[in-house]
Design brief:
The chain is an all-alpha fold. It has one domain. It is built from three helices and no strands.
């Protein structure tokens, strides 16, 4: 019973990782990493949960990189213009 609960936890964290990856990249990254640690057993739902957590981590990294890039480019142009 406990193994099934951990599999479902990893699956739910994978879904939350994708959602939070778009809304708040740091929260998406954190939930994705925690979700990967919950996916230790080999079952069908665990494979799907691992894929969802990896997708959530990738989405979080891309959104975070874009936010840093936009912040840097817009911030530097605002500072240098008189």
């Amino acid at each position: 019973m406990a193994e099934k609960d951990l599999n479902q936890t990893g699956y739910v964290l994978g879904i939350l990782s994708i959602i939070f990856g778009v809304i708040s990249p740091l929260a998406g990254l954190a939930t994705g990493v925690v979700g990967l640690f919950h996916c230790r057993h080999k079952s069908e739902i665990t494979k799907k949960a691992k894929i969802m957590n990896i997708v959530g981590i990738i989405v979080s990294i891309i959104v975070l990189a874009l936010a840093i890039y936009v912040s840097y480019t817009n911030g530097s142009s605002l500072i240098t213009t008189p």
